[in-house]
Design goal:
This protein is mostly helical. The chain is built from 6 helices and no strands. The radius of gyration is 19 Å and the shape is elongated.
């Protein structure tokens, strides 16, 4: 293995660590801040669409690399990263300016009464499972995406390919479940 490629990877390691830790902490902190501003647009369908587009682009990018179209693959992956960043910004902005929506809250009072709980039944557990797994994996996928990207940037394509086999399904799961969470919660937006 080329030591120059490993050296290139190593120079990015501190950034990968810092970003992998800082992004979830900053997002969690920003969720504690509420801004009394009414946005001119309703963000959830927009950021859900960025997740859907990310999922589509990830699949196309894999098809492109399998066809040997490295430059197209690279461009699509950069676009997928950009869309993921856009999603995160829109998601945080929405939660800083809006109250959280409770799954099953038909009357929009912020709590579930007995009738609402009964009407959604076990779907609430399914929703919570998908939501929690989406959130946890969205945090966990950050270092994988960064490492995968850095390995490609360093030209270490064998190591890039190895980790991409892990990164791709995680990232795709996060993107797809983001859309599913939106579809499931959308009837309960006020």
């Amino acid at each position: 293995m080329n030591t120059n490629k490993l050296d290139k990877e190593k120079q990015y390691k501190p950034w990968i660590i810092v970003l992998s830790v800082a992004i979830p902490i900053v997002v969690a902190f920003l969720f504690t801040i509420k801004i009394n501003v009414e946005l001119p647009i309703f963000l959830p369908p927009i950021y859900a669409s960025t997740n859907a587009l990310t999922a589509i682009i990830l699949v196309i990018a894999v098809v492109m690399i399998k066809k040997g179209q490295r430059q197209t693959h690279e461009n699509l992956m950069k676009l997928a990263i950009g869309l993921s960043v856009l999603f995160l910004v829109l998601y945080v902005l929405y939660h800083m300016t809006s109250s959280s929506t409770v799954y099953g809250d038909i009357n929009h009072d912020g709590t579930l009464d007995a009738i609402e709980k009964q009407s959604i039944g076990s779907f609430r557990y399914l929703y919570l499972f998908i939501l929690v797994s989406h959130i946890l994996l969205s945090i966990g996928v950050i270092p994988f995406v960064l490492i995968t990207y850095v390995r490609a940037l360093a030209g270490n394509f064998e190591r890039h390919k190895k980790i991409a086999k892990i990164t791709f399904p995680l990232w795709l799961y996060v993107a797809v479940t983001g859309v599913i969470v939106y579809i499931m919660i959308s009837p309960y937006y006020a």
